Amino acid sequence: MRLLVIRHGESEADLMDVHEGRADFSLTERGHKQAKAMALFVKNNYNISAIYCSTLKRAHQTAAHLSEATDIPLIPDDKLMEFNNGLIAGLERTVAHEKYPFVENLPIHAAVYEQESILEFRFRADYILSKIISDTPPNATVAIVSHGGMINQLYQAFLRLPIDSNIIFGTGDTGIHSWYLDEKKRRVLMANYTGHTKDI
Length: 200
Known about the structure:
Layout: E1 2-7, H1 29-45, E2 50-53, H2 57-70, E3 74-76, H3 93-99, H4 118-135, E4 141-146, H5 148-158, E5 176-181, E6 186-193
Parallel strand pairs: 1-4, 2-3, 2-4
Antiparallel strand pairs: 1-5, 5-6
């Protein structure tokens, strides 16, 4: 099967220099244009059978463009939401740094500032990826529209990396990652493709 893992388009928070996470901002006008371009690219290059998406506005709105282009209904799931950043959600970065400073060497099971732990974040990624894979026929292609942090966790789950891995997989606005798996292997075919946004 093939998984197309897609980040949402530019959001209002991207222009405000605030911590986003669970703060529920909408796409900007540019973000909608990016999402439309992504949807057209996916429609023209893949035959997808399902679209899973985060329930946060920026991802849901991005996925809605893909749904409209392909006539495939959305499957929203809270487990695809971004990292639960607790009390810093929506705060300006300078304010958040002063009120809630970074805690060094925090164990992966522990959390501060009403956030989820890294262990809980990875568990969500492992759970939803396992569910999507088990619900997808072997020869099908499905799309997953989520967030940068969650996509990084999905990468680590897909590649079966250690939970405390310090490897980061970056992704841009509406960046597309193409993964393939069968009973014998798991392959990353394309990482962070954003060619559809080059004129936006």
